[in-house]
């Protein structure tokens, strides 16, 4: 590699940190994989950069680093976010705790909820803005100052200011935030009106509070990371992947860390969508199987599906555009055990990366999905995933764990028990694929299925069998797909404003002026990123509903078609597509205007990932695999050495450093001109 125009995508996972390197000068690519350091994610990141020093000239030659991070997600899930205070309108301190009167279990009468900001750190001040935007009570800034001093005395690192009805008029909140920023000792001050100027008080306070709680954690991590990179000679741009699949500058990520909460999985879906389009399959279901979870998403007509909000965990709602990803506890480290009713369960409890599956030999006594795959011969104990980064696996520890916790309780042979573990795990994962497709009105059989992550290739044929999918696409580097997605992602900035007017009450000239304001503001963010942009496009949506409804539909519109007739027609088309019918005679309302400005980054030809034209595969070895109740010798191929057009018939093992593909009997795999494996039933 020339090392002068390198773009590096980095994805930090629980077990491995993956780097995908594109040299834009000579159009070459490279993959680097190093162990992650739990709790010190920057260490694994820097170890990967150090490997680049050996491979291609070091950090000084990198033009851009795009980072998909789970630091924010992990901090929220593990309750390790910063100690945060809330300053709010008198009488509204408990909005964060009341939520939407929902409960963690549908039929449960009890449920614990631990709000991200405890009650003693939620302070009230006198102020009030009415729903029409008029100021009923001016904010008492002396009370605001007193609250700041109390929160600092209580050890808060960050603070969130949330006043009621600021979507209609943010004047009181803006004045309070200005006073807080004069007094607060760091930059970790969040205004709910700046983060989410949108109607619905719980969603706004939840999103803003989580943003505040993440500012010290994510901001500190990114500042340390950039400092370490600068010390190594890095002089380029550090970019961060957002949950919506776009990227933003490190500075913006420090201000709005809540937008990074599904950063890593989002990058993987972006890569899958591009790979599938290039392979001629615009409709694809993706399945990211890691050590703990199985993350599923849907790509329709080449476009990823975005959700308006998501829950990181029960009660922790983030309202910000995010790629729709459904997650279940079915990863390689998911623990299998027999419950009190005698039923075999797999997940959601996971052995994680430390101690990991029983076969890792780090002290976990319980069997996992990885242990079952190992015992059945689908993983070679001498060559586990990671290209030598993991030591050899211990099949006898896997056998002992499965025998003690599954085989004996169920009265099964140990191999039958291993097959049962995989059957249950496969059924759970196939259920997630059906959910994400059928629930949205799509027939999963007309989609291709693309697995990625370290464990996806071991279960690809099972997913195709279970769902009736006719085409499987295993990308060239499944284990580093999220890192590849970081390199491919475009810059993106979003804006939203509540309208809350009947369709025929809206002043569309004012609406068009608002779009112009959003356009200018987002262009400033794009320009500040300091990276090459090939073109700029925009997306515009209106959240609309019939009068009296609670939930909205997202209606795509064009900026030059913002008038009542075009908007009414667009709403009817979107509503009919969503629900199959209209409700004539009922007035229509526009709730919110949503805007996205997208800086399209230069793309590289995915055929760079294909095997070289002079590729010469080694003769296949054999691997002993338990298939259909019997042991048999199965050919084992070095997958990355297979030339374009190579066809392999199952049963077979296709092995590479970042994954293993188990090709079941009755399936074939062909290498296409983009380096993908295209699987078909025979």
From TrEMBL:
Q: Which residues form the Acetophenone carboxylase-like C-terminal domain?
A: 516-678
Q: Name one Pfam family in it.
A: Hydant_A_C
UniProt superkingdom: Bacteria
Residue ranges of every copy of the Hydantoinase/oxoprolinase N-terminal domain listed in the record: 8-182
Q: Which InterPro entries does this chain map to?
A: ACX-like_C, ATPase_NBD, Hydant_A_N, Hydantoinase_A, Oxoprolinase-like
Occurrences of domain Hydantoinase A/oxoprolinase (ranges): 204-494
Membrane-crossing ranges are none
Query: Entry's PANTHER family?
Result: 5-OXOPROLINASE RELATED, HYPOTHETICAL 5-OXOPROLINASE (EUROFUNG)-RELATED
Q: What is this protein called?
A: Hydantoinase/oxoprolinase family protein
> Which source organism does the UniProt entry give?
Pigmentiphaga daeguensis
